[in-house]
Amino acid sequence: MKDVRDALFVAQRSDGTLVRRPLSPHLQVYRFQLSMFLSIANRIAGVAASFGTLLLVWWLVAAATGPVSFATVQSVVGSPIGILAMFGWTLALVYHFVAGLRHLAWDAGYGFDKTSFNKVGPIAVAVTLILTVLVFAIGVSLWNSAPVIAVVPVVAPAGN
Amino acid sequence: MSNAKLQHQIMRSQLGRVRGLGSAKSGVEHWWVERVTAIALIPLTLWFVVSLLLLLGMPQIVVVHWVGRPVNTVLLLALVVLTFHHMQLGLQVVLDDYVHDKKSHLALTLLNKGAALILALFAVVAILKMAFWAPALVVPGA
What is the DSSP code (8-state) at residue B69? Predict the structure, then answer.
């Protein structure tokens, strides 16, 4: 025993040997269920979407700075790593949105029971995947059909 | 049990009870504001995602003009302010749950609040700059 608090967790068997008392059940003793994954996934998605706001701020600041800065953002977003990051951000945002709607429904008193959790959970996953792929597919096709950008204009309107 | 006796048993001022303050020193404000911002962000986020899709790949001047339209300026400002407020509220709960060391918790809390404020200000200033800049620009072909 290194910590005095450990004394509270030690008990004696009937034969006198010491044994650690069982602690309250922790994560690993539970059988995996979709609802437990969806619960923590909402939190992870929220944190991931938070990091995505850096890109939003960069995009806005670059657009407010000038065409050259803006072209830099576009080239980074259009790069393989940028596309991957955009996909991750889209997925995180869409799932956090869908799970957030579920939370608001629960807060309002709807569907806050095991039967509903297990019924709506898979639907939430399906909606998330469909919306993510849909938004991303539309995004990529619109990106490719957008007018060709003059990356470095002869005269920048302002800034830069 | 008479009411007079009952009042002596409540170890809490009536004013405190009315304000909903317990040992946590605050009521449900954090929880409530998180929900209020979430509700406001439903339509704002949908609007922004659709707008962003339509702006994808467009030159900078088009983006500046889009931001410069008063409706877009206002909705973007609302989106940014509410997003960062909602974000720091949510991240704070994550910190409260997982960071047990008091010094780390304080440092990360200050970082969370500070970063959210600075990022929000960056975005707000950028939006306002575009809003005031847009009328002076001429869009080619418009």
Answer: S
Please give the helix or strand (H or E) that residue A148 lies within, else none. none
Does the CB of A36 have a partner CB in chain B at under 8 Å?
Answer: no
User: Domain range spanning residue A136?
Assistant: 27-145
Is this complex scored with an ipTM above 0.85? no
Burial of A94 (0-12, 13-18, 19+ CB in 10 A): buried
Contacts of A62 in chain B (CB under 8 A): 60
- The CATH number of the domain holding residue A114 is 1.20.1300.10
Tens digits of residue pLDDT in A111-141: 999 999 999 999 999 999 999 999 999 998 9
Three-class secondary structure of residue A87 per DSSP: helix
pLDDT tens for each residue of B45-97: 999 999 999 999 899 999 999 999 999 999 999 999 999 999 999 999 999 99
Rg (CA), chain B: 23
Spatial contact of A53 and B115, defined as CB atoms under 8 Å apart: no
Question: In this structure, which amino acid lies at residue A4?
Answer: V
Domain for residue B16, yes or no?
no
B57·A47 Cβ contact <8 A: no
